[in-house]
Design a protein that fits this description.
Elements: H1 23-39, H2 41-51, H3 89-103, E1 112-115, H4 119-128, E2 133-136, H5 138-146, H6 152-162, H7 167-180, H8 182-189, H9 213-221, H10 230-253, H11 261-274, E3 278-281, E4 286-290, E5 296-300, E6 305-306, H12 310-314, H13 319-330, H14 349-355, E7 401-402, E8 408-409, H15 435-438
Parallel strand pairs: 1-2
Antiparallel strand pairs: 3-4, 4-5, 5-6, 7-8
Length: about 450
């Protein structure tokens, strides 16, 4: 487990429990709490390293100016986290550089990133890891599209293009979008498809995921940590990750295998669909697979490639490969072994369990921390002056507003409000001036 810590200049202040406390007293109390925790920050990091051998902790500080008054199984495994002043190029560059040093990455590394196209992050990834595959979350891409072209028709066209697994299928769907809206097609065509369409993804990630929802879920769980002083905030994150890892381990203990639950569900669906297909063998290592509605693809079983590219993209044999394996075993009397053995090891239950062999250990309380021998004192960073109450939650799109019970509800933008009294548009019941309805006359 690697933990990166960076001084945060935009931690939201805690709301005081006493609403009658004078503003100056409130400010002093909040600043005192942050100063106390920053003073113990190095001691806290010492305790983290003691309790979790191999953990990396880094503090990047800004010198004081004396003249100034100032988250395998289609899930997420937390590798590193950081506390930064804000999302910007310098912060992303620092974090990704630290991450690369811990994981042994260099400019030739071909990891796969997926993000919301945050400008600073794009630049940092391009600079440090030019060989990496960088995917853009299609949900965020659609959010950008909606500012000019809204409606389900545009959304459906985008998703058809994004979920296309072959270049011919992608080009066909892009052509359909052009016929529907050429301006939208021009806008989307400027974004390289290697970042957002399965048809142009490499197969090295063994995942065809198009969304960064896994990260959004993690962010939602950690939102309560953002208004805490620095050590309290870091402890909130650490304890949450401890509990999360234990929950996953408990879930794994109930799985039968040999594949993870998500992979098992996908593979079972592929086997069900394979019953509709027929196979023609060329006498060597290639097979022609035919299906309904003119479907016809070639499977190269030696090189583990199917023309539909789903096997290459996910590492899970598609329906075409499944029916070929059945043909090899039942018709050609070849030894293929269990079908699951053709699934990439990344989707095996044993791989999932090995990932979670690494635990986050508990730490002692502040009274038992070994004192850091670094002589300089850490102080909270100077906060930028802002107007109004600091925002705690991220800004949501118009299509993801959430009500009190957590259910997504649609925006009312563009709808016409009508009075509950007279049913006329333009006002509500409280402001209704229709006397006949208000007095009960005309009934």
């Amino acid at each position: 487990m690697c933990t990166y810590n960076f001084l945060a200049s935009k931690l939201t202040d805690k709301i005081p429990s006493n609403p009658n406390m004078p503003i100056k007293a409130v400010k002093y109390q909040l600043e005192s709490e942050h100063e106390v925790e920053y003073a113990h920050l190095r001691d806290y990091l010492e305790e983290l390293r003691r309790a979790n051998p191999g953990t990396t902790t880094i503090v990047d500080v800004q010198q004081c100016d004396s003249s100034s008054d100032s988250s395998s199984d289609n899930g997420i495994y937390p590798v590193a986290y950081a506390l930064v002043e804000k999302e910007k190029y310098d912060s992303w560059l620092w974090f990704l550089d630290c991450l690369g040093k811990d994981l042994g990455l260099d400019t030739r590394s071909n990891f796969t990133f997926i993000s919301d196209r945050q400008k600073g992050l794009l630049q940092a990834v391009d600079r440090l890891y030019p060989c990496a595959e960088h995917r853009y979350c299609v949900k965020h891409l659609h959010g950008n599209m909606k500012s000019k072209w809204s409606g389900n028709a545009y959304k459906n066209h985008l998703w058809k293009c994004a979920t296309s697994t072959t270049v011919p299928e992608f080009e066909k769907n892009m052509l359909a979008l052009k016929g529907f809206s050429e301006p939208c097609w021009i806008w989307l065509n400027k974004i390289a498809p290697k970042h957002w369409s399965k048809s142009h993804f490499t197969g090295r990630a063994h995942s065809d995921v198009l969304l960064s929802n896994m990260c959004e879920v993690l962010n939602r769980w950690l939102v309560d940590a953002r208004d805490k002083p620095i050590i309290t905030c870091l402890e909130f994150v650490r304890e949450y990750l401890m509990k999360r890892i234990v929950n996953v381990i408990n879930r794994m203990s109930k799985c039968q295998g040999p594949l993870t639950p998500a992979a098992t569900k996908i593979f079972e669906g592929n086997q069900k669909d394979a019953h509709k297909l027929t196979v023609l063998w060329n006498g060597d290592g290639k097979y022609q697979v035919n299906g309904p509605h003119g479907e016809q693809v070639v499977v190269d079983i030696v090189n583990k490639v199917c023309a539909c590219r789903r096997w290459e993209l996910t590492g899970i044999p598609c329906k075409h490969v499944v029916v070929v394996l059945w043909n090899m075993s039942r018709v050609n009397d070849e030894t293929v072994g269990p079908l699951e053995s053709w699934v990439h090891r990344v989707h095996w239950l044993d791989t999932w369990k090995n990932t979670y062999n690494y635990k986050i250990n508990p730490v002692n309380g502040i009274d038992m921390w070994r004192k850091s021998d670094v002589p300089t004192k850490l102080l909270p960073p100077i906060k930028e002056a802002t107007t109004g109450r600091p925002k705690k939650n991220r800004k949501k799109g118009v299509d993801e507003k959430v009500d009190l019970v957590g259910k997504t509800k649609l925006s009312k933008k563009g709808t016409i409000n009508r009075c509950g009294n007279c049913k006329e548009p333009g006002h509500n019941k409280r402001r209704c001036t229709n006397a006949s309805v208000n007095t009960g006359q005309g009934q």
